[in-house]
Amino acid sequence: MNREVIVCLRELFVNSRLRMMLDFTQHGDTSCLEHTLAVVFCSLAIARFLRIRVSKRELIRGGILHDYFLYDWHDGKKERRIHGFTHPSMALMNAEEDFYLSRRERDIIKKHMFPLTAKPPKYKEAWIICLADKICACIEAFRKEPYPEIKKMIKRQECYAQG
Question: Could you list the residue range(s) of the whole structural domain that residue 34 is in?
Answer without folding.
Answer: 3-162
